Amino acid sequence: MTAHQARKRFGQNFLVDLGVVDAIVRAIAPQPKDLMIEIGPGLSALTAPLLDHLEKLTAIEIDRDLAARLRQRFSADRLAVIEADALQVDFTQFGQGLRIVGNLPYNISSPLLFALVDCADLVCDQHFMLQREVVDRMVAEPGSSEYSRLSVMLQYRYQIYKLFDVAPEAFDPPPRVTSAIVRMIPKGAERLRAQDDKLFATVVQRAFSQRRKMLRGVLGEWTTLIPWEKLGVLPTWRAEQVSVTGFVGIADALYGSGIRA
Q1: Which residues in the chain are classed under CATH 3.40.50.150?
Q2: Where is S-adenosyl-L-methionine annotated to bind (predicted)?
Q3: In the chain, which end has fewer C-beta atoms inside a 10 angstrom radius, N or C?
Q4: Contact of 25 with 53, CB cutoff 8 Å
């Protein structure tokens, strides 16, 4: 089988460090009956060791050449290959109790993370390799420079844990940045929820649209509808100072005043 040339348009950087592969598989801890979906299996660095523990695995691969390689290497009864863009895949088709894993291309990581929120109720956990900068934003606390819309929207829906860094040398070709492994566990029915998820998302997006502006400036006409003191939030704060709970409070106050997304 001829060597595969990494394609920039797909953001391909193939994991080749077996020690890192082993650490990732141990972190995922696959069990035989798991309903696992791998996004971007590439040259199957993770696929093969995952299948050592699983009865069956589903892989989503956008590159038709790599998809063909996967079908050639693994039997269809062990590996189901879906040749598609993960951003276009309806994950609800796979059922409930999903475990999603993958070395996500940097160019689609944030859009894909947001897209997967819609099926979080079907997911047990997610383990992803991402750019370290993205993972740092995912786990960032209010008040830090990394805290962002991504932080709020994902922490609203998941418990998120940064597991460990992965150096560029673990890949071929090596990326220009350090990567990191993140674990995401969807929060259950007892989680804090806004009265209107869409309005909550709109408030967060608007608040972070101009990070340097105070909330009273960026939220405009909504400012007078928000009981700032009751929420423990100041109108002179910037978005990066507001916790997830604070944003839920703002959204609920607006909802109670008749504002809709």
Answers
A1: 8-186
A2: 13, 15, 40, 61, 85, 103
A3: N
A4: yes
- Which run of H or E residues covers position 44? none
Annotated binding site for S-adenosyl-L-methionine: 13, 15, 40, 61, 85, 103
The CATH number, out of the four listed (1.10.8.100, 3.30.1540.10, 1.20.1070.10, 3.40.190.10), of the domain defined by the range 197-256: 1.10.8.100
Name the burial class of residue 75, with classes exposed (0-12), middle (13-18) and buried (19+) by CB atoms within 10 angstroms of its CB.
Answer: exposed
Beta strands in the chain, from DSSP E residues, in sequence order: 14-15, 35-39, 57-61, 79-83, 98-103, 123-131, 158-166, 171-172, 179-186
| pTM, to two decimals | 0.93
Q: Does domain 8-186 match CATH 3.40.50.150?
A: yes
Query: pLDDT per residue over 181-219, tens digit each?
Result: 999 999 999 999 999 999 999 999 999 999 999 999 999
